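hi!! sorry for the late reply, been swamped w classes. u asked for the two structures so here they r. pasted raw, havent cleaned anything up. first the sequence of the first protein and right below it the tokens
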Amino acid sequence: MGKPMIMGRKTFESFPSPLPGRRHIVLTRDPHWQADGAEVAHSVDQALKLAAAEHVAVIGGAEIFALMLPKADRIELTEVHAAPDGDAIVPPFEDEWVETAREEYSADGERPAYSFVTLERRTA
């Protein structure tokens, strides 16, 4: 809550409406795209400049994650312990990342078990 979020157009369009309490910065190649509740950026640097915050949440999709990863120093990851059908997979994080925290949550009814994991970029 409260942090600006950077996302791709498809991620933004998957919401029924903008999420309350957060800025929605949409990174898109389409120079004409706009939507109520969205601030539009056309480059990583422009999105970060719009965010103008120490901490920014990058919430998807896969291409946006890949573009932003080189600039990240921490990843807050939710691991859902299920294998749903889908077409996007986050690849494993390389050796430059170290797990610094993990919270495990059990399955509850229809909701699968999940973990909140914090990864931090290794320093030399």
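now the second protein. again sequence first, tokens right under
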Amino acid sequence: MSYTVKGKGKFVARKRRHQRVRKNVNGTAERPRLVVTRSNRHMVAQVVNDQVGHTLVSASTMEDEFDGNSTKVEAARRVGELVAERAKEAGITSVVFDRGGNKYHGRVAAVAEGAREGGLEL
């Protein structure tokens, strides 16, 4: 599948990167995939078992715990810590990191760092 849309450079580049990442990143029951979804306003992190297509745990800035008084990067780090805490409760200690075509920088890196601080092995 190729993406060529005139005037959509960033969108096309992210889609291309996402395809490249997903060729090699698959979640299993032993080592599920930590998916990071980034919008302009929110961050969502999910731990997914791709063999059965189930989301095992998730965390998001849209939850009630987030008051909106922190910066986006601080909130992203907290999402990583939350998803790690919930994953450990579910018996998950190791995951494969899926950055979703986003560059490993800023909020995406903050989620990964928060998950590592929370005890997940990426």
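hope this helps!! also noticed smth abt the second:
The first helix runs from residue 9 to 24.
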